[in-house]
Amino acid sequence: MKLQYFPKAFASILVTLLIFSASGASAGVSLAGSEGDRRFPPSLNGDPKSPCTKAYKAYVAASGHSAYATTPYSRVVSLYILCGARLNAPSQKVAEELAMKSCQATRAHYKVTNGGGCEIAASK
User: Which end of the chain is least crowded, N or C, by CB within 10 Å?
Assistant: First the structure.
């Protein structure tokens, strides 16, 4: 007795399994376009050429773990906004640490003493 439909059915099932396993393996979650965990809304001046606006847009567009740190803005005290970002880090925690270091280095570079310290505004 010879099974005439078995090879075709077996091939069909095998192809279906290969398609599903291949699509599942490459379906990693991309973080691009996501604002992640927003702790407070970052103050952006709206100028697309501003370094902090560019940094925040790059943070949102980044596909990996990233963070955006900034100084809080207050009309009474702050005349400026300083920021720092780290894109596509190995983990969210590392991204936050490096974004804080970047923001603090910017504060030290400009010798800022008022306006508040750096804080993580968003991370993913």
Answer: N
**CB within 8 Å of 20: residues ≥ 6 apart:** none
**Model pLDDT, residue 21:** 47
How is residue 48 annotated by DSSP?
T
Q: How far apart are CA 90 and CA 95, in angstroms?
A: 7
- The conformational region for residue 36 under phi > 0 = left, psi -120 to 50 = alpha, else beta, is left
C-alpha dist (Å) from residue 29 to 22, 33, 56, 57, 124: 15, 12, 21, 19, 12
Cα(33)–Cα(115) distance, rounded to whole angstroms? 30
CA distance 106 to 2: 78
**pLDDT tens digits, 59-104:** 999 999 999 999 987 665 567 889 999 999 999 999 999 999 999 9
Check the CA dihedral 39-43-47-53 and report its sign: negative
63, 30 Cβ separation under 8 angstroms: yes
Reported pTM: 0.74
